[in-house]
Design a protein that fits this description.
CATH class of the largest domain: Mainly Beta
Strand content: 25-35%
Radius of gyration: 34 Å
Number of domains: 2
CATH topology of the largest domain: SH3 type barrels
Shape: rod-shaped
CATH architecture of the largest domain: Roll
Strand order of the largest sheet: 6-5-4-3-7
Structural class: alpha+beta
Largest sheet: 5 strands, antiparallel
Oligomer: single chain
């Protein structure tokens, strides 16, 4: 009486023992299926990375570039708003700092990175007329 045994492969497939040449063909098909499975796993990851880049990284780089250009364009006499909300007029420009006058006779030195915005020239004329 001959008993039939079945061997289970670590990949989840089963093959009868003693099947000779048929085992090599089955291993090739399983390898192709695994490769397709890996592509199926990486595709959503790639899509997620692209979405992350176009909605978060790229816009932030654009804002940083605009802010750096705005800071580079600030000259003596310009009015600025700091991150803390102080309004001031630039009195001196150095490599990494500005000296601003926030009230008559009150001058402070701030880092260039602490500048939030540059006020428009039209608002300077309006403030002078209102005073």
């Amino acid at each position: 009486m001959a008993e039939s045994t079945t061997a289970v492969s670590p990949c989840g497939g089963s093959a009868p023992s003693g099947s000779g040449g048929g085992a090599g063909a089955g291993a090739g098909a399983e390898g192709a299926a695994q490769q397709g499975g890996l592509m199926g796993m990486f595709f959503p990851l790639i899509i997620f990375i692209l979405i992350f880049y176009f909605f978060i990284i790229r816009p932030q780089r654009k804002r940083d570039k605009q802010h750096n250009n705005m800071i580079a364009g600030i000259n003596r006499g310009d009015q600025i708003v700091t991150i803390g909300g102080f309004l001031g007029t630039v009195r001196e420009v150095r490599d990494d700092t500005f000296q601003i006058e926030i009230a008559e006779g009150v001058r402070v030195r701030i880092l260039k990175s602490a500048v939030q915005t540059k006020r428009a020239a039209a608002s300077n004329e309006n403030q002078g007329a209102a005073s």
